[in-house]
User: What shape does this take?
Amino acid sequence: MSGLLEGKIAIVTGGAKGLGYGISRRMAREGASLLITGRDGAATEKVAAEIRDEFGTAAVGMSADMGVKEEVLGMIERAVDEFGGLDILVNNASLLSDNVLLEHKTDEMLKRTLEIGVWGCWWGMKAALPHMKKRGGGSIINFHSIDAQTGAWLHGDYNINKMGIMGLTRSAAVEWGRFGIRANAIAPTGLGQVFADLVENVPGFLEQATANNPMKRAGDPENDIGPVIVFLASDMSRFVTGEMINVDGGQHLPGYVSIPHNLEELEKSGA
Assistant: This one.
């Protein structure tokens, strides 16, 4: 623990599971006071208690659905009320709808995906702005995806969402730099919740998924993804804004093959 985030107040959305869990732990190890949110309130409170016990840093969990404006606004206010301000907003929460072809995605799938992603980031960032201004600046960290970069099959709505988040990130970097607020994004590939479930339940999935990764492994949320979040949240990146960093062991270089093995079946199912 080097204390890179000592004295900083942070929110991590979706911070109790998958990548968010590892990120929360890493930020706590560096001294940040954390509000951990997620739709599973009990899980957020459990992780907050774990962090308090293990690292001795302040941590609170609360239920918040990023697709509901009132809950997003309440999340920001809770952090300010609990800790006295806000320095860092990590917008990690996201949603994957059912794996169906683009032509079979519904309006409701896209609507819900955008609510959790683009709209959740929009509401959270705008609500965080006055509090970060009071602190003399801050760091916003959003999440892009290799799926959007490669146009991954079956994730059309998700890909649209991630491209929207990237546009929002760059707009905030340009316009809010005058307040000392930085906005950056990462595109991580690691053992997140969905990835970890596939590794556990599908024999050979890990080997197949990492076969063309230059580093030949999947990223660890706490030790591979978390340090990059800490970098972007800390003063080490004080002159970095509007960037998108691939944190994927080089996976974006060869990309990955996402065409479904059951394409014919999927085409028939939505006819």
